[in-house]
Amino acid sequence: MHEATIAHLAQSLKDRKVSSKELTKYFLERISRLDTSLNSFITVCEEEALAQADSADELLATGDATPLTGIPIAHKDIFCTEGVKTSCGSRILDNFISPYDATVVSKLKAAGAVMLGKTNMDEFAMGSSNETSFYGVVHNPWDTTRVPGGSSGGSAAAVAAQLVSGATGTDTGGSIRQPAALTGITGLKPTYGRVSRYGMVAFASSLDQAGTLTKTAEDSALMLQAMAGADERDSTSLSAIVPDFSKAQKSAWENITIGVPDNFFDDSLDTKNAQLVKEALSVFEKLGARIKDIHLKHIHLSVPVYYVVAPAEASSNLSRFDGVRFGHRSEHAENLTEFYMKTRGEGFGSEVKRRILTGTYVLSAGYYDAYYLQAQKVRQLISQDFAEAFKTVDVIAGPTTPTPAFRIGQKTDDPIQMYLNDMYTIGAPLAGLPALSMPCGFINNLPVGLQLTGPHLSEEKLLKAGYYYQQETDWHNFVPPGYEA
Amino acid sequence: MAWEIVIGLEIHTQLATKSKIFSGSPTQYGATPNSQASLVDLGYPGVLPVLNQSVVHMAIKFGLATDCEISRRSVFARKNYFYPDLPKGYQISQYELPIVHSGHLDIVLDDGNIKTIGITRAHLEEDAGKSLHEDFQGLSGIDLNRTGTPLLEIVSEPDLRSAEEAGTYMRSIHKLVRYLGISDGNMQEGSFRCDANVSIRKKGDKKLGTRTELKNLNSFRFVEKAIRVEVERQIDLLEDGGKITQETRLYDADKNETRPMRSKEEANDYRYFPDPDLLPVIINDELIENVRAELPELPNARTKRLIRDHGISDSMAEELTSSPAIADYFEEATKNTPHVPAKRIGNLIQRELSAALNREGLSIEGSKISPSMIGKLAQKIEDNTVSASAASTVFDEIWKTGGSSNVDSIIEKHGLKQITDMHTIEAMVDDVIINNPEQIIQFKNGKEKVIGFLVGQVMKESKGKANPQNVNQILRSKLSSS
Amino acid sequence: MLLNREDVEKLCLLSRLEITPEEMEDVSAKLSDIVNMVKQLQAAETTGVLPMAHPLDQAQRMREDKATETDHHEKYQQNASLVERDLYLVPKVID
Predict the structure, then answer these.
(1) CA dihedral A406, A409, A412, A414 (to 10 degrees)
(2) Domain total for chain B?
C-alpha cells in the first residue's frame, strides 16, 4: 500500500477497496515504526488525522470526493496549522500553537487530504541539509549517515521512505528540489505567486514559494491542483486561471525544445552526475524533443545574489520573533534591549543568526547600494537571461545538485560550501520561475535529480515533461532499502 | 544678533477609514486593549498585508487639493527597528517613492498676507500601537489596537519662519483634511499629530542650521509653545558659544521645556528596503479623475466665495469656513433670507450659536437650532421686530426647548417685540435723564462717551425691547435742547 | 577579516541578537567569508539596470475598505507568556 502513488491510492479509495481510515492507520504505524531512524516528523497528529480520515470516508461514500480525499499527507512545519504546533524547526516557536490555518493547509483540508503531521526542516528554512533544525538532523533514507537535503528535508525523507504519500514543502533557493533530488523523489516549485504564501512562515518573501514533494510528477499535479490559486490574503498571489494540471500533463506529447545551459556543466558538477543528466536528456530526445545548447550569462552570480537578497528579507521578516506575543521569551533580561537580545539569542540557532546578521549588514547605511541594490540589479540580469533563453527554448534542463547527498556534518562548518549546494536551484526563484526536480539515476546507490525549469506559469509544461519522462523511466519507483516493508 | 527661525512640520493624519491600512480590523478609538488587533496587526508568523483601497483614494485626494504630483507608481518600504509598540519589528511606510509629492498650500497669516508653504511629500504608512507606562510591577503594557491604523504623513518644506506661522500652517492642514473628509482631525484621540523640525541661522545665511526634531505635539497651542521655547533654547545655546546637537526632543508641557528623548539616543539605522510582501501601487489617469470628481470645494476657495457671494468680512469668512459643517450651516441659513445681510446670520452663528455649542460641548452637527431658524431670527432683527439683545433671549429660549418652538411664538410669549412707539421711548428717556444727573452734567461738559451708558440704561428699562437707534436719537435731541 | 568584533557587535545590537563571547570569533570569521563571497557582485556591470525587488511585474491588488475582523484577543493571547488586563507585558519602555 505504501509504495502506491497518490494517483493509485485515489483510485483504490474511490473504488472503496480501502478506506481512508485504514490508510491513515497504516501510515501512522509506518511512521511510529520507521521514523525513529529518520527523524522526519516534528509532530505527528494521530487524533486529528483519524478524525479527518473519518470525514474523508464520509465524503468518499457520498461520491463528493476529490483525488486527494482520504490521502495521507504531511505538511512542512513552516505552514501554520490551527491548533497544532507550528515550530518552523526553531526553538523560538517551540511553544507556538497556530490559531489559524495557512491557505495551503486549508485548501488541502478542503480537498479532503488527511494531515498525518508536521515534518522536520532546517530552522526557518535556512539550510540545505536539514542539520539546522532545533529538532535534530533528518537522515536520508538511502543512507542514514547522509543528509536528506534541505530545507524541506523532513518532507523529502518522509515521502522517500514512504511514511506518507505526499508532502508540502517550500522552496526559497532550492528547498524543495534539492532534497527531492537527494532522496530520489519528485519535487515541484511552482511559479512565484502560483500558490498562496499566507500562513507560510516567511523566510525571504520575494523568493518563497510553496510546492510539492511526491513520488511522481503525476502526483505533483494532483497536489498542486488543490494548492494553487489566487488568495485575497496574499497580494503577491497570482490571479491567473489555474488549469487542469493532470489533464494537461497527460495530453498528447508535443515536441519541445530543451535548452541546456553550458554553465550547469562546470567543474563543480560530479562527472557521474553530469552523465546521468545527459542520459536523461537522451530520453527526451527519444520522445522527440530537440536539445539546444544555451548560455546563461549571469547565472554564476546567482549564489551571491541570493545570499544578499534572502538574508536581507529574512533579517526583517524574523524581527517579529521577540517573545512578546508568541514564542520563546527569555527569563534573564534586565531591560528592554537585553530582553530582545536574549530572547532572540536563545531562540535562534547559529545559521539563522548568521543570516540575520548578514541581512542586517547588507541593508545597513553605507552598504545598501554596494550589496542590496547591486544584488537586485544582478537579479534583474539573471532574470533577463532566462527570459531571453525562453524565446528559443520551452524548458531548461540540467542537474538539480552538483553531487549526491553528502555526509551529515560534512559541511556544517563551512557555510560557503553549504551554500554552493544550491548553485543550480537558486536561479529559478530569483526569476520567479517554476522548476521541477525528478530522479534520473543513482551514484553509489544515492539518487540524483534532473531539473527542468520553465517560464512563468509553465507548470503544465514541466509536469507534462515529467510525466512522459517517468513513463519512459523507473528511477522514481526505487525504494530505499529498509523501507520496502 | 538677528536670528532667522526655520521650521518644517511633519503632520501625521489618521485617515478616516472603516478598516486598517493592511488588515480588515476596525479602527474605532477606545476599544478594549488588543480587541482590534488581528493576526496581521499582531505580526503573527505567516500573515501578509493587503492594501486598503480607500487609503490610496484619500492620499490622492490630499495630493490633488495641494497641487501635488500624484506618483503613478509608488512603493511601500519597511522601516526596521525594535520597539514594543511595533509588533513586526518594522513599520510599513513609503520611503523613496511616496504616493504624492511636490505640492503647496497657501496659508493666511495673522496680518492678512498669504504665504505659500511647500509640501515636500505626503506618504502612507501604518500607525504603531501604544505602550502604557502605568506600573505592572516594573513592566509596560502594550495595546496594539492602534497598530495598522492608516496614516498620511504630510511633510512640509522648511518654509515656516515663526511659531505662529507653524501654528497657522498646522491649522490650515487640519482644516483641509477635514474638508476633504479624509480625517476626523480629532487631536484628543491622536488622529492629528505633529513633529516639528526646528533650526535657527543668522539672518542672511543660506545654509540651514543644525535642526532638532520635536516629537508628538498634539495641539495647536503646544506646537507654538514648544517651538518658541526650543528656539529660545537654541538661541541661548549658540549665543553662549555652544553647538546644537541633531537629536529628537520631547516637549514637556508642564515644565514648558524640551528635553532629549532617551530612547532615541542610540543611533538608528532603519535599513529601509522595498516591502516584498507588497507590490508597487500603480495609479492611472482614470483613478485620478474619479477622485478629482469627488473633491469638495476647498477651504481657501470657499472662504473667497463666501466673501464674494455674501459680502461678509475676511475674518468672518475665515471663521465660518473653519470647518465644512459650519460653512454648510451658514450657507443653509442664508438660503431663504434674501433681504437679510449675511453678516447678521454670521454674527448669530459666531456669537449665540458658538457660545451655546461651547457651553454644552457640542459640535455644529449637534445644534438644537436649525439653520432656517437662525435665518428667521436674523430676519426679525433686520426688520426691527426684535433688537439684537432680545434676539439673544429668543435664541436661548428656542435652544432650551430643543428647537421645537418657533421664533414668532417665543417673541409673542415673552413679549420681546421691539418697542418702536416713540412716546413710550420718550417716557423712558425722560426717566433716565432724571435719575442720572451726574452723567448728564458730564455729557454736557463734553464727555461724549457717557451717551453709551445712558442708552444702556434706557435699554435696560425697556428690557431690551427698545430700538437702540431710536433711543440714541431721542436722547441726543433731548440733551441738546435742554 | 572583513568584519571585526566591533562590526559584529554593532550588527548584533541592530538585529537584537545576543552572541556569546565564545561564539564571537566564529561568527566574525564566517560572516567575513559570506561578505567576501557576495562581494563578487560588485564586479558585475549593472549601469542602467533597474533593481528587481520582485519576481513578478504586477501591480498591487487592493482590498475594499471593510471591517472584516472580529475580536479574538483572548485566543491570540494564549500564545503570549505575559498578559495582564488584556495587555502584552514587556520590560519597561522608556521614552
Answers:
(1) -70
(2) 3
Per-residue pLDDT of chain A (485 residues; tens, 9 = 90+): 788 999 999 999 999 999 999 999 999 999 999 999 999 999 999 999 999 999 999 999 998 899 999 999 999 999 999 999 999 999 999 999 999 999 999 999 999 999 999 999 999 999 999 999 999 999 999 999 999 999 999 999 999 999 999 999 999 999 999 999 999 999 999 999 999 999 999 999 999 999 999 999 999 999 999 999 999 999 999 999 999 999 999 999 999 999 999 999 988 999 999 999 999 999 999 999 999 999 999 999 999 999 999 999 999 999 999 999 999 999 989 899 999 999 999 999 999 999 999 999 999 999 999 999 999 999 999 999 999 999 999 999 999 999 999 999 999 989 888 898 899 999 999 999 999 999 999 999 999 999 999 999 999 999 999 999 999 999 999 999 999 88
| CB of B418 closer than 8 Å to CB of B385 | yes
Q: Which amino acid is at A145?
A: T
- CATH code, domain with B461: 1.10.10.410
Residue B265, pLDDT above cutoff 50: no
Q: Kindly state whether residues B129 and B275 are assigned to the same domain.
A: yes
Beta carbons of A187 and A211 less than 8 angstroms apart:
yes
Residue B271 — very low, low, confident or very high, per pLDDT cuts 50/70/90? very high
- Please tell me the distance in Å from A312's CA to the nearest CA on chain B: 9
Q: Is A363 in CB contact (< 8 Å) with chain B?
A: yes
CA–CA separation, B13 vs B400, rounded Å? 37
Give ipTM to 2 decimals: 0.97
CB contact at 8 A, A360 and C11: yes
Please check whether residues B438 and B337 belong to one and the same domain: no
Residues of the domain holding B454: 422-481
Residues B311-347 have pLDDT tens digits of 999 889 988 998 889 999 999 999 988 888 899 999 9
Q: Where are the domains of chain A?
A: 6-254+434-477
Contact, A117 vs A41, CB < 8 A? yes
C-alpha cell at position B35: 480587541
For A73-112, the DSSP string reads EEEETTB-BTTBB--TT-GGGTT-B-SS--HHHHHHHHTT
Which chain C residues are within 8 Å of A336, Cβ to Cβ? 90-94
Helix (H, G, I), strand (E, B) or coil at A146: strand
How many B×C Cβ pairs under 8 Å? Answer: 128
Query: Strands, DSSP E only, in A216-368?
Result: 257-261, 290-294
3-state secondary structure string across A451-478: EEECCCCCHHHHHHHHHHHHHHCCHHHC
Contact across the interface for B46 and A205, Cβ inside 8 Å: no
- Look up the CATH superfamily of A6-254+434-477: Amidase signature (AS) domain (3.90.1300.10)
Tracing cell 505567486 back to the chain, one arrives at A193
In terms of domains, do B260 and B379 share one?
no
Q: Domain check: are B369 and B429 in the same one? A: no
Residues B162 and B311 in one domain: no
Which residue in B has a C-alpha nearest to residue A335's C-alpha? B139
Chain A positions in Cβ-Cβ contact with residue B45 (cut-off 8 Å)? 80, 86, 88, 93, 96, 98, 201-202, 320-321, 326
CA distances from C7 to B5, B446, C1, C2, C13 (A): 39, 88, 11, 9, 10
User: B400 and B260: one domain?
Assistant: no
* Cβ distance of A344 and C49 shorter than 8 Å: no
CB contact (8 A) between residue A202 and residue B45: yes
Of B413, B442, B472, the domain-final residue: B413
- Active-site residues of A: which are they? 76, 151, 175
Q: Could you give the 3-state DSSP secondary structure of residue A187?
A: strand
Contact C44 A378 (CB under 8 A): yes
What residue ranges do the domains of chain C occupy?
5-43
